[in-house]
Amino acid sequence: MLSTTCSSLRRGLLLAAALPLSLIAAASADAADKQIRVICNNWSGFAPVFVAGDLGYFKALGLDVSVKLDDEQSDALAGLTRGDIEVDMRTVDDYQRRPRTDATPGVMIGTIDESVGGDGVVASGDIKTVADLKGKTVAMETDIPAYLLMQLELEKAGLTYKDVNIKQTAGSDALSVFSDKSIDAIGTFQPFMDQAVKMQAARGAHTLISSASYPGFIIDVIIVNQDKLKADPAAYKAFLTGVYKAVAYFGTNSDDFEKLAAPHYNLSVADFKASIDGSLNYTDLAKAQGYMGTTAAPGPLYKTFDTLMHLNMENGASDTTLSAAHSFDPSVLASITAADLK
After folding, report:
1. How would you list the strands of the sheet with 119-123, edge to edge?
2. Which one of 213, 229, 244 terminates a domain?
């Protein structure tokens, strides 16, 4: 069984109206099924969890999975600490942000999707390069991936956020704010990036910065309490197996995957498809294992973690420099084989 409750929204799913409070995806789990309670936001990148429930993968693996939609980092940390949440899903950079410290429970055990154009900055036609943003006004939130992407690009241009005027604006509101000609650029996410380019064509609006230029940088990860992981690694292996079975299903049956996923987001199939095409890629088992590596041979996501950590400390989003080695546990992911997905 997979059930869903809704608490708040985040990037990407501002496409949708409020979700129903409960979505029952399969037959009732029996008493022996192990409970996995997930907390995440309603980003389309997490659809494999819903589809795994719909296709009966979790049930067959002995799991009873439920999902609570809530984007507050503090709620997820509290749930993992109390033990009433087994899994949190969010981007690596979000994982690092305060109030997390070295003592906060939660390690990353797998990946589920990566942004490949779903996040970025749209600028007016007179802004030809990132260097042209000096002294200009950019509307964006400071806790979305576009903020980090812009920070990287500013550094390449020899600038910092001190050289730019940031107008705090929710990603979903950036589109309407961009109609104000005093706003030179906006940081947002899809579908608002494409919509801004189309709606402000007269201003020469164009994508200035895109996550498509940073593959493997904006990645959503699966986070668990390390004590629970140590106590029952089989349950978390089963959860990851169900997720990667669903990602594999997307690879061979994308149309049906989209039909199953769309209702969970209160979207038409066409709108759900639009929310992922050109915006994100689901990470299959091989990709996830490649990103994470092993304890003995860490993958490239560890280096990305350090880069993001530097950025978050520099922009004040984090108070503690966290260690990648202590923040990842790839052991369960490394134990999954292609045969487990059959």
Report:
1. 165-168, 137-140, 185-189, 119-123, 206-210
2. 213
